[in-house]
Every structure is written in C-alpha cells, then in structure tokens.
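REQUEST FORM: STRUCTURE PREDICTION
Request ID: SP-0412
Submitted by: Lab K.M.
Chain count: 1
Length (residues): 130
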Amino acid sequence: MNTWIVLFLVFDILVMLGIVLFVFRLRVKVGTVVLPTASSLEELSQIRPLMEFAKDRQERIADYVRSNWSGVPDQLPGVLSSLVDQLEGEARAQGHTFSRDLLKTLVATTLRSRRISRPDDVGNALEKVA
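STATUS: Completed
RESULT:
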C-alpha cells in the first residue's frame, strides 16, 4: 500500500512541474516586447482624423448604401467599391492619407451598427473590394 502512495506522489509532483513549466514558458512568450512597425504607428496617428471623418460620413454612408443597393448580396461588392472610392477621394481632398483598409473598416462598422445588411454579407463583399 505504501508503494501506491509513493507512486501517486511522484506522479503528482511530475504533473505539477509540467504545469509550472508550461505557465513559465507562456509568461516568457507573452512578456516579450513587440515593437510596432512604422505602418502601424502611422495608422495609429490617423485615428483622431479618421474618427472625425467617420462621424461626418456615417449618415451619408448609410444613405448611399440604402439608395444604391437592392438587397441582393451579389450587388453589394460593386456598391461598396464605389463608396470606398468616393470616400477615398473625399479624404484625399481634405488632406488625409487613410488607407483603403481603414476606409473599408469605416464602411463595415457603419453598416453593421446601422444594421443595413447582414454582417456576413458586408464582410464577404468587402473582401472582394480591392
């Protein structure tokens, strides 16, 4: 009977050491510092102008999609492509250099918050937009 207790204690110690090593390795990986790239810093510096731009354009985005999209998911990529092109032109006219990805995120967020279409339809359509 004593051998079972000793075997159980040895097994328990091995499992506990394995868990401690796993947690230690996880903390070491998470604890490493990842420096942001120049492009991500540039996008972070554009957050405030993007928020102001988005605030001014939300109603227009919603109206544009409502008036130009019939509800057929296959037509949505063309409508959103045209919309992103217009938003990009307006942003450049105001001196902003937003990337198309940021503008597509703006469109997706607006459409999802206004519940103009299903989120899956918006996501699939924006993947097709260049």
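NOTES: The CA atoms of residues 28 and 63 lie 50 Å apart.
Reviewed by: T.R.
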